[in-house]
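F.,

This is the one I mentioned.
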């Protein structure tokens, strides 16, 4: 866990510094109004998420909007989590262990790929395979570093820019795989 925190901080700070240097940092505001407009939820928010009603109706509009969006995202996550859990149960841990166990470098890349599955089941499988000796430390770290739970689902659900989403996913995958390869190369064991 400490390795994940340290690597996450290092990569996050480096990325933030690089984006600032390129003058590409955002304004820091979550633009819920854009999501409202795209989903046609009729929550009466403008492009910046500000309610169209006066101060007295604003709290009610914001609460209603938050509830509608929470339910929609929750149902989206529930449906995709069910599908992912079904796939994981059909493939099984033994098939995955047999596929990656024989080659440590391939194991890093495949474990990172499995870690991208937006479901806690992927993290459980990776951890169990590591504890059972089927995965090395590098592969385990790669898979768990890229695992963001359902965070990727929320990203793809709420951010309309598919190219940006794919770039973020590829960056997360590359960072996890690179860290796993470094751990393998250094012979680190946890």
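My design for it:
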């Amino acid at each position: 866990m400490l390795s994940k925190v340290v690597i996450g901080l290092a990569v996050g700070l480096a990325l933030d510094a690089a984006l600032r240097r390129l003058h590409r940092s955002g304004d820091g505001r979550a633009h819920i109004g854009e999501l409202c407009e795209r989903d046609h939820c009729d929550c009466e928010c403008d492009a910046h998420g500000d309610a169209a009603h006066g101060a007295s109706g604003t709290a009610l509009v914001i609460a209603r909007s938050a509830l509608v969006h929470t339910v929609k995202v929750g149902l989206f996550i529930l449906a995709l989590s069910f599908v992912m859990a079904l796939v994981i149960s059909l493939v099984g841990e033994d098939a995955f262990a047999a596929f990656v166990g024989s080659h440590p470098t391939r194991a890093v890349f495949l474990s990172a790929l499995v870690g991208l599955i937006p479901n806690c089941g992927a993290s459980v499988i990776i951890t169990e395979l590591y504890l059972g000796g089927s995965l090395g430390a590098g592969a385990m770290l790669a898979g768990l570093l890229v695992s963001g739970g359902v965070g990727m689902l929320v990203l793809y659900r709420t951010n309309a820019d598919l190219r940006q989403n794919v770039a973020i996913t590829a960056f997360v995958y590359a960072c996890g795989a690179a860290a796993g390869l470094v751990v393998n190369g250094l012979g680190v064991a946890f």
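The CA atoms of residues 27 and 48 lie 12 Å apart.

Talk soon.
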